[in-house]
Specification:
Helices cover 53% and strands 6% of the residues. It is mainly α and 352 residues long. Strand 1 and strand 2 form a beta hairpin. The radius of gyration is 28 Å and the shape is globular.
Length: 352
């Protein structure tokens, strides 16, 4: 009797072990086949966990792991641009002793869109007026629908857009880590000539003439007329570049944002930008951003007047009137922007 009971208990244990083994194997088989039919998402260090609001993929997920075939080629291009920035920052960091930590004051050019979780660093003379218009449409919650219906002066009113420096340190860190961050850049010397043409050759910019023009004329023009000293409305490009490379200008403080380097405005060695758009491919890159955000079907980036654009040929003409020494000094001033955003050294420069 005892032997029979012992055998029954042993058989019961064996049955339970067999059942547990079969159940475990069955569960493993289920997970295996389930994984076979689920898409694999390559993990990216800048990917936001989970999905975005309203059950759709957010801009970061669509950028780093595109689901649409036509976006895959663009993803490769923008990865190369990100790599170029990272490599340039690494070289600069190795060759420079400068170390600094960003403060909220450094973030005043970073415009925040809470609804779409975007951060845009605006760079003057790189379509920033139209980008601000677009950001006003995105953040306006229906108040605006057409960017071009927004007057240009209204686009530059600070209270119409929220910038990152208006947040607490914890809120800043959260947004820098989780939001889609982008900026647009331009060939540095074309941007510089564009800034000069806009701020010093147009009559309506009298505030710039008074603020900077009079100072430039006073410092660098011999036998200046009284009118020039008072109004500063006829600054020559040669005088403007002399002002830029003068050590006294550097001691005065940061350059004005219209001719400050992108490196100093947007801090790409401290902030990881997910996308670097270029002025040379403005509409293509801008509308790619809007597609990533999920508004590409309802919002298009405004086209711009190509007839008034500062070109490479025009820039070469302006640079032909300044000395070799000034050309070298200017290149050194903007060199990091050239390298970081993969712009070749202009052929018209006399650097030897």
């Amino acid at each position: 009797m005892k032997q029979t009971l012992s055998e029954l208990l042993r058989m019961s244990r064996i049955c339970r072990m067999v059942f547990a083994t079969c159940l475990g194997s069955f569960i493993l088989v289920i997970f295996y086949f389930q994984s076979m039919f689920q898409p694999v998402m390559r993990r990216n260090p800048f990917m936001v966990d989970g999905c975005c609001r309203k059950g759709s993929r957010n801009a970061l997920q669509e950028l780093y792991n595109p689901t649409q075939l036509e976006l895959s080629g663009a993803a490769v291009l923008h990865q190369a641009r990100r790599d170029q920035v990272v490599d340039s920052c690494r070289v600069y960091s190795a060759s420079s002793r400068k170390r600094r930590v960003l403060t909220p004051g450094d973030l005043k050019h970073l415009v925040v869109d809470e609804d779409h979780e975007l951060i845009y660093c605006y760079v003057p003379k790189v379509a920033c007026t139209n980008w601000k218009r677009v950001m006003m449409v995105l953040t306006g919650r229906g108040k605006y629908s057409d960017p071009m219906e927004i007057p240009s002066n209204e686009a530059h009113v600070p209270s119409n857009l929220k910038t990152l420096n208006q947040y607490s340190i914890a809120e800043i860190n959260h947004r820098l880590k989780n939001y889609f961050k982008f900026l647009f850049v331009r060939e540095p010397f074309e941007r510089l000539v564009s800034a000069y043409r806009n701020k010093f050759t147009l009559k309506y910019n009298s505030s710039f003439h008074k603020r900077f023009g009079t100072r430039i004329v006073r410092r660098y023009r011999k036998n200046a007329t009284q009118d020039a000293l008072v109004n500063g409305a006829d600054v020559k490009f040669k005088e403007f570049t002399e002002y830029l490379v003068d050590p006294a200008t550097q001691r005065d403080g940061p350059l004005n944002e219209h001719w400050q380097t992108v490196y100093q405005l947007c801090h790409p060695c401290h902030i990881h930008y997910d996308l670097v758009g270029k002025y040379e491919t403005l509409e293509e890159d801008a509308n790619y951003v809007l597609r990533l955000v999920g508004v590409g079907n309802s919002l298009r980036f405004p086209s711009y007047a190509k007839s008034t654009r500062t070109t490479d040929t025009m820039t070469a003409q302006f640079f032909s009137n300044i000395s070799t020494q000034q050309q070298i000094q200017l290149y050194q001033l903007y060199k990091l922007d050239f390298l970081m955003f993969n712009y070749s050294t202009p052929s018209y420069l006399r650097l030897d």
